[in-house]
Amino acid sequence: MSEIAPEAVAEQVTPSTPDATAEVGRARLRTEDARLITGRTTWTDNIQLPGLLHVAFLRSPISHARITRIDAEDARRRPGVIAVVTGADLAGEQGSLPCAWPVTEDMVLPDHPPVAVDEVRYVGEPVAAVVARDRYAAVDALEAIDIDYEPLPAVVDMERAIEEGTGLVHADKGTNTSYTWVFEAGEPDAAFRDAPVVIERRYVQQRLIPTAMEPRAVVCSAVGDEYTLWSATQIPHILRLMLATVTGIPEHRLRVIAPDVGGGFGSKLQVYGEEVVCLLLARRLGRPVKWTESRSEGNMAVHHGRDQIQRLSLAADRDGRIRGLKVDLLADMGAYLMLVTPGIPLLGAFMFNGIYKMDAYSFRCTGVFTNKTPTDAYRGAGRPEATFGIERMMDELAAELGLDPLEVRRRNWIAHEEFPYDTISGLTYDSGNYEAATEKAMRLFDYDKLRAEQADRRDRGDPVQLGIGVSTFTEMCGLAPSRVLGSLSYGAGGWEHASVRVLPSGKVEVVTGSSAHGQGHETAWAQIAADRLGVPFEDVRVLHGDTSVSPKGMDTYGSRSLAVGGVALYNACDKVVDKARRMAAHLLEADEGDLEFSGGSFSVKGVPGQARTLQEVALAAFAAHDLPEGFEPSLDSEATHDPENFSFPHGTHLCAVEVDTETGFVKIRSYVAVDDVGKVVNPLIVEGQVHGGLAQGIAQALYEEAVYDADGNLTTTTMADYLVPSAADLPTFTTDRTETPATTNPLGVKGVGEAGTIASTPAVVNAIVDALRPYGVDDVPMPCTPERVWRALRAAQSGQAPPGGSPEPGAGGGLGSAGGAA
Amino acid sequence: MIPAPFDYVRPSTLNDAVTALREADEEGKVLAGGQSLMPLLRLRLAYPEVLIDVSGLPELRGVRDDGDSIVVGAMATHYEVMRDPLVQAHAPLLAAATSTVADPAVRHRGTFGGSLAHADPAGDLPAVVLTMDGLFVTSAREIPARDFFADYLTSALEPDEILLGVRLPKTYTGWGFHYEKFHRTAQAWAVVGVACLVRRTDGEIAHARIGLTNMGSTPVRAYAVETAVADGPASREAFQSAARDAPDGTNPPSDLHGSAEYRRHLAQVLTARALATAAGV
Questions:
Q1: Residue A522: is its pLDDT beyond 60?
Q2: Which residues contact A111 (CB under 8 A, 6 or more apart)?
Q3: Is A665 on the interface with B (CB under 8 A)?
Q4: Using a CB-CB distance cutoff of 8 angstroms, which residues of chain B are in contact with residue A716?
């Protein structure tokens, strides 16, 4: 096993112990949890308005067809039905749903009407909406709408979609290719020429369904020309701007509220057709409307995640040093480009090199249209796919060279003394300590002991084999420096806003543009403000998610809230203290430079007893009887923070699996996650994010897959078929941290929302392959179902090429190995 | 996830319930715990005109001792069945299988009779009752288990017939037992399940009874394996050899959770394991 230099575990990487009075660092229970967990709160579906009408959508049952006739007369006559609208009825006002990320100048961007007008392109696409007095009447009336479809060829398979002669998802565009995006650094061809080792693999990132606990829901009211839209969304601010753009309703007449939102994982980072239609219906009818989706409806119509075919080539020297990496992706866009659909796989472009040094790198991604639900951001968004690719390849390289997988990583990773480090893909990693995280993880995992047990089981021919999987990941998050987004043609910036109001009573209101949907902002933001202002935690209230209350914001996604929005709050608090210092100096008749601020109180250095609390200063500013010259009577302050760099959390995850070689069943025996997310505001929230992230990453490895049949029908519309693991299926996680502060923000924090998901998928699959490598298995396609593990074993043992997966449509896709070492 | 409109009645006598079913003229459905029926209604896979809620019928409740058999009421919840002393004493295989059904919430609502009348070959209880030669007691007659499961989601119950409970003989009291369930997640249905009862004498298997879950459109007995292990040694090798016949006569489905070929393989592995656990080797 690799020797990790002991000096690497420097003191600064041991998580700091907060002092007893500090709020930042304290493992507080989340103050919002009682109302969220009991549901006694404003979930969108809980909202009732006088005269509320209910909306239901009729959705296409066919993946690709021309609509030749719609007869809604029977539906309109049903009791309780107020209106039925089709795409044709809305054609003049519904516009086209936005895509804010034109990744290339010649990207093919099809029209995307919220309700299909003359052609449907995926199962679940809306074709009509019913408005009724209650939701039962609305849903019943759907069955009375009669539609004739003329089927068109279904484009289901990405590789076939880009071949000549295949049917077209958008006939008017003449191609199923949306774009091809390339990046190159160093000299890839030179790196591969005469390389002693070349590993080539093909991996499939299966399509996933985000499955937030709360389904989508929208309520919209129109009073005069003022509109209020409540939505279970992650992005009230972006949604407001986009809805104004799509519908022509002036932005200042539209208020968007994200009340309490029950999870999103990226699926609510979207501008959905249902939101547009509810707005149009409220305008048309002059009455408030509500729509809440069902789980099976959501499985078809909420944007999906992942869905890539990766062709990877890695060139290395015989000592394991990486020379170069070539990445060629096909990324399934689905039928339309939604808000950031085309950019998602490109977030991976900067992450395929992982934590490793190399001489050359090339990346190529082709976005492909298919007759399936559109894809877009899902927890990790591009980075899990990239991390899977490189971490699987590192294990393949180790196997090829007969090295321990940790040793081959050690020979390539960036050493802790090399930070800041400019990577081959053009990012600057500000800080990190891969040695320390790895050393700690190995210790907690008891790595050597498990390797010994593995050897013993192999010797004994135990039908249950042990496998050990490694994932030494990093990721880029805290989206994002606006200048970088601009250079990637993204349609907006990446700043965040915060304001702090010190009320006359000394209580504090924090307003954040970051829109929490379960992450615990109300607790963590109060902790930051309490520390910076020296006020009790209980005296801080956090407001968010309503464009009238929190007018500026870029919302929550990409693990950005703390690293961007938290820093904006930090800066706003400093401005409050600066104002208060001036006021306090005036009250104390002292020079500002002679004041100390500590524990919420300004005191004159060397003059005990001469002090004013922040609360006293706030009241005096409010009274405004005696202000310094030119001082506005308020301590309130705001700040907008645009990060100078991404944040780069990293960590070492180790997974041990027991693989039953007779049935193919995989059981996770133990899982150790040592994450370095920099300084931590609330360790309990970090722990929760890691646990949830691990569950979702493990789910991709073992359980979840959105399966389409050959005709483009989604066959995993219920949770009986789309398997989401519960606590009963997961091991007790061992989590720990190292703490290498980010150097690019004053809090020293990095994002944590996606790290667990990004890291864990390759750790699990590496473990499975490690268990089975002596049998000749070098890959199992995801999800690694028992049958796929069994088939991989059988194929390897019979010496045949692996079969093309299970016989049922879509569930196979072929084992992902395109060849061994060259 | 909103059902089509239906009427609902909750009769308080068996007579009224049967009358209500008869008046529904094949458009009625019996509602027990609702754990299978309600999802079908919400997905609009079933459109009954009237639901007859049988939770008010005292005849369907509880578990009782009846001489050389016990009678498990159709409305006994899974939770009640798992914990019932009579079931634990005389039908521990049923208690064991029932404890693997879905999750605690479902086990508190779902009923023994509802699960059987639903006749889902992926359900755990049909194979157990088949293995135990249960006798289905209805409002009109008694039906042996081997005749009760007619086809996929189809039982022998007539449209106006109500399942009252199942009579389980005490014949298997003291036999070794095991329910080997193979499923992908804790709450998922069995990909394949094996219900197994064995009687041992002097290190040999005197008798074995084996029922398979999800290996066809109905639960099936693995007669060939039962015959092969009878009067043979209670050893893993013998069980593995005999279990090769487990897929004989089965017609397993292919679906997202497993192909027919894989299910046949699983039936062999799991049957050997079930025999070994039941026989205590």
A1: yes
A2: A96
A3: yes
A4: 256
Q: Chain A contacts of B262, Cβ < 8 Å?
A: 786-787, 790-791, 806
Alpha-carbon gap, residue A757 to B216, rounded angstroms: 38
- pLDDT bin (cut points 50, 70, 90) of residue A118 is very high
Nearest in space to A566 (alpha carbons), one of A507, A650, A478: A478
Q: What ipTM was estimated for this complex?
A: 0.97
Å between B196 CA and nearest CA of chain A: 19
Taking CB atoms and an 8 Å cutoff, what residues of chain A touch B189? 720
Q: How many helices (H) and strands (E) does chain B have?
A: 12, 15
Inter-chain touch B185–A723, beta carbons under 8 Å: yes
- Which residues constitute the domain of residue B165? 58-169
Q: Compute the distance between CA of residue A510 and CA of residue A528 in angstroms, rounded to an integer.
A: 10
Strand partners, A510: A500, A542
Alpha carbon distance A699, A761 (integer Å) = 8
Is the per-residue pLDDT at A9 higher than 60?
no
Distance from CA of B57 to the nearest CA of A (A): 30
B185 → closest Cβ in A662, A663, A703: A703
Which of A294, A245, A178, A219 is CA-nearest to residue A45? A219
Q: In Å, how far is B248's CA from the nearest CA of chain A?
A: 19
What gap in Å lies between CA A229 and CA A279, rounded to an integer?
Answer: 7
Tokens 């979930």 found at: A43
Q: What values do phi and psi take at A171, rounded to 5? A: -60, -35
* Distance of residue A134 Cα from the nearest chain B Cα, in angstroms: 12
Question: Are the folds of A44-152+216-292 and A495-641 the same?
Answer: no
Determine the distance in angstroms separating the CA of A140 from the nearest CA of chain B, rounded to an integer.
6
Q: Do B269 and A662 touch (CB under 8 A)?
A: yes
Same domain, residue pair B30 and B112: no
Taking CB atoms and an 8 Å cutoff, what residues of chain B touch A295? 1
Query: Do the Cβ atoms of B114 and B37 come closer than 8 Å?
Result: yes
State the amino acid at position A149 in one-letter form. Y
Mutate to test the interface with B, among A136, A300, A663, A715 (most CBs of B within 10 A): A663
Architecture of domain A44-152+216-292: Alpha-Beta Complex (3.90)
Spatial distance between the Cα atoms of A479 and A593, rounded to a whole number of angstroms:
37
CA distances from A263 to A28, A56, A216, A375, B275 (A): 21, 22, 10, 18, 45
pLDDT digits (tens, 9 = 90+) for A451-504: 999 999 999 999 999 999 999 999 999 999 999 999 999 999 999 999 999 999
Residue B259 counted as domain residue: yes
CB-CB under 8 Å, B182 with A665: yes
Return mean pLDDT, chain A: 94
B163 and B157 in contact (C-beta within 8 Å)?
Answer: yes
- Count of domains observed in chain B: 3
The class level of CATH for A495-641 reads: alpha beta
CA atoms within 13 A on the CB side of A662: 14
Residue B2 domain-assigned (yes or no) = no
Q: Do B258 and A707 touch (CB under 8 A)?
A: no
In a domain, B1, yes or no: no
Based on the fold, state whether residues B156 and B188 are members of the same structural domain. Answer: no
- Chain B CB contacts of A707 below 8 Å: 256
Residues of chain A with C-beta less than 8 angstroms from the C-beta of B269: 662-663
